[in-house]
Amino acid sequence: MTWIITKYLLTAGMVVFISEVAKRSDRLGGFIAALPLMTFLTLVWLYVENQTEEKIANHAYYTFWYVIPTLPMFLLFPYLLPKLGFWATMGASTVVTVLCFGLFALVMKNFGVNLLCKKKNHPKVVLMHFGGPGRNRTTDTRIFSPLLYRLSYQAKS
């Protein structure tokens, strides 16, 4: 129980720290908020709690993919805030982020990155296997020259 309280306090402390810095400096607050501090802290918590390397790697891998569709919100929010007010802007930003995520997930599925389903799509496959033996390198080979596609596989010995 002490451990989980420590995790809550340290994690909440990060949020409070960032908001206090942002009160004093927009740029510095934005810079600190943009750092992957929460992800870093989460990776540390997973490691300290003896999670497998695969679990920790998966968290970092999916965090990368989940950050990308959130980026439009950071441009939309300052544009909408003077027009709609804070809470309406928060709601609109949330809706846009969810829509961007859904569209992004559909697009990425065409490239073999499954963000919405439970199908295993481990970074190990991406990071630890080089060459083509034993796996399909693309879900749609029509986008590549057939000769280049065939050359991407190692020759049989």
Query: Which H/E pattern describes the elements?
Result: HHHHHHHH
For the sheet with most strands, the description reads:
none
DSSP, total strands: 0
Shape: extended
Mean pLDDT, to the nearest integer, reads 81
Distance between the termini: 57 Å
User: Low-confidence spans: pLDDT under 50, at least 5 residues?
Assistant: 124-131
Q: Over all CA atoms, what is the radius of gyration? A: 21 Å
| Fraction of residues in H or I helices | 55-70%
Structural class: mainly alpha
What does the oligomeric state look like here?
Answer: single chain
H/I helix tally: 8
Fraction in beta strands: under 5%
Outline the fold blueprint:
Elements: H1 2-24, H2 26-34, H3 37-48, H4 53-67, H5 71-84, H6 86-109, H7 123-128, H8 146-151
Report on the structure:
There is one protein chain. This protein is an all-alpha fold and 157 residues long. The protein has a domain at 122-157. Helix content is 69%, strand content 0%. It contains eight helices and no strands. The protein has helices at residues 2-24, 26-34, 37-48, 53-67, 71-84, 86-109, 123-128, 146-151. Helix 5 runs antiparallel to helix 6. The longest helix is centred in the middle third of the chain and has 24 residues, at 86-109. The termini are far apart. Residues 124-131 have low confidence and may be disordered.
